[in-house]
Design a protein that fits this description.
By secondary structure, the chain is mostly beta strands. Helices cover about 5% and strands about 40% of the residues. Strands 12, 13, 14, 15 and 16 form a 5-stranded antiparallel sheet that branches. A 5-stranded antiparallel sheet has the order 17-18-19-20-21. The longest helix has 11 residues.
Length: about 400
Amino acid sequence: MSNPSQPERPAVTRRTVLLAGAGAAALAAGAAGAGPAAAAPRTGAGAAAQQGTPLCEVPGDSANAQGLGSGDLAIPYYREHDNSWGYVFGDSWAGPGLSGDYLGSPVMLNQAGFDASGGTPISFTWAQPTGGAANQLFDYRHEQDNGHGWEVSRIPNDCIEFGGRTYIQYTSVAVWGPPAGYDGSLMSGVAYSDDHGVTWHDYPYHWPGDTQGVNQSMYGMWSFAGIDPDGWLYIFSKRWNGTHRNTADGGAIQLFRIQPHEFRAGNFGAQQNWAFLDNRWQWTNSAAPSPILTGNNIGEFSVKRIGGTYCMSYFDVTDYSICTRTAPRPDAGWTAPKPQIAGNNTWPPSHWGKPQLPFLYGGYIHPGSANANSLTLIVSQWNGQVGQSPYRVLQYDGINP
């Protein structure tokens, strides 16, 4: 979502492109079926689990108490230094419906304890950099050249903490409404914090994007699957499609791994790649990663190791749903995609009976999920209207991938 300080530009923003990416007719059908409200909570057995509970834009809620009125993404991560939880938002505002002061991107809210059962919804207990005063984490200016080329906003893709350092992988967006076949990115990078999210520094190496001459870089969006018991940090990445209208996305996802100490040092060239080489899949330094999955265009995605199982979720732009898959290992075969939350329940039949949330995107796996058969997903919703609600995140529990 671009900074509204440029009033002549709000028509083409990150979320309005849902109208083109998912099909205006489909969105209209979804809106007619349920409106912009969250799905109704379950009744009977398991009724305590959250099934579309909004985590911001509710008067007097915990996000507002921390200075955030409306925002999206809310990417969850485990803060291992104090056993708490962080949630990294994208473009955020002090008021509901993108109103009030523009806070920037990324923005972080924190939580002392997470209820994996879904018995109580996520409640934010402090913000970065100071409690009650949510603000932009990174030191850069929007809709300006900060030394790398024109950038509108830096959008977080995932966050992880290990060894006392916190990392956010982000995409710098140059164009929210790119022409067909282009991704509209400036570059991607990794920022880190050694004081648990208060101050941030950028690693000097950046992965060039569209307007730096590398359109469709497979390093545009990352998801940190976590440090496996084998000692490697596994990372999945794909083309930037935060606009949801990158027509050349093709759903391709690649996999690489790196030793945590090499990652901390910024020695990204030490990665090993999962590649199909010499007629077999193998870990190698002599070839680029090979796509492990392809198919429908997808937007935001998330991969996490939950109880020994690798779980993946993503926004399927083509299918207009949040889908999940699983694998026993990051380099093993993945199950077929399973729609979990649909933008509408009128098409296709795989949407029937699923929770319905018009104008959805995102869909991040909470690393504190109860188990691999009961995930918590954080899903975003925006109807494309600046100054109107909803522009928020919602919590869904009990998702069986």
